[in-house]
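Recap from last week: sequence in, structure out.
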Amino acid sequence: MKNIIKAHLKPLAACLVFVFVAGLAGTYVQFLKGELLDAALEGISSDVFRLSAAFFAVVAVELAAYYGYDYFRGRFSVANKNSMRGRFFDWLLARSPIEVMAVQQGEFVAQYTDQIDQVNDGYLDNIPLLIEISSKAVTVSAALFWLDYRIAVLTLFLLTMPLYVPKLIEKRLQNAKKESIDSFQKHLGNIVEWLSGFELIKNYSIERVIRSKFQKSNDDVSVKLFRFKRITYLSKTITALLSYMSHFIVIVATAALVLSGEFSAGDFFIAVGLIDQLSYPIIAISVYLQEFLSTKPLAKKLEALFEQTAEDGKRTLDIPNIDSVAFRHVCFGYGDAAPLLNDFSLTVNAGEKCIITGQSGSGKSTSMNLLLGYYEPRSGEILINGANAFCVKGLNERIAIMRQDPVLFNDTLRNNLTMYRDMGDDELIALLQKLNLSKFASREGLNAIISEGGSNLSGGERKRIALARTLLRKAPITIIDEPLANVDSETAEKIEDILSELSGGIVFVITHHFSEDKKKAFAKEFRLGA
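Predicted structure tokens:
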């Protein structure tokens, strides 16, 4: 978190200045109160009025300084959270699709919401608070030494005893915190999974089963959270007990100085006021240290996450133009399962189209995922212009892919087609008409809002819009996965015509079926699982 803190040192420095002024003012107020009491007891009315005016003026300065401190503390907190969210999203965008797909969405949501909030609230937010408490402790301690060094030494010795409590239970706190975070992360993952399969839950009428699973997961979160809170509350109770006992002993010692005639009533009033001001900061330091120490491992975990480099950063080979893609004796299987691809060899040159057919599960999409670098083959190699594809810089940016299940964003149709690139409407409209999407083939249609996931479109419309987006990319390598699924015969024929007419670059079309006469437009056909 050092980089995040360094980026926001200005508000932190402002916090230090304002809290120092507030501490000086607060300490001076205690002396004014004591002098005011002595003046009142001695009946010196002129001093009473003068000290009263000074008292209110200093209190006004203290309050103004604390407002300035709170203002910049808030700026520091908000800026830190903003930076952490930005760095987390940068880290997420740098992951490969397969890395993201391998993790429950709930885990990412938990990291973005709960974990960042915990680090901000329990770790970073405590930095200005610790500065405030430390500054006040230094100011008040100096004032106590000025008043009487014996009271100062006794106060510091006794009142600092509660500070050792958080350190003594640090490991227990950290373990309980980790268990609570892990439990919530798993729970959130379950929620996301159930929301994704909501239609299935309703269709099979398994609401009671899911409710039971939810309750079990929710109860586990509650148990782990309460365990952490119980340890926290016990620590606070012990800290408060030690603090009150210490406070009592110091007040008794101060009262003894009054009885011996070394302190006036005003001095006693000052000493008690200063001890009160020192007692609260020390209890607060104990609480803040407790939060700080328990959240520290999570802060380190997120910091390590932010420092991770993108996998693409390891790709250093720069290839200006892609002339060929080759699979050489590739063997691949998931985990320890039997190979899905065995001795798979295929070469496609620039300007050629290749159609890959085969039954479901024969490895058609998997072969393209290997090209994209999502997995590494068990044996064999994948080559771009004769070089290892895993070394080619920015390869994903040079591949346009349309998946069988298209993804559409909650945005205008234009932005879904162009992916936020500058493109002329005429080109978009012409392609929409070609794909039998005439109702969208106008400037008004391009401005139409697509619901999340394209829920306001038919399955065929979603498929054709995704195909249009892929074709508009005009990438050196194009992968089109099952373009004919979930479309009517008329639209299927139009899509086949468009794919048959495609030229330039390298095109892979993955499909279960394609008209035999249209296959002639493809330079190569490869059937997997034959």
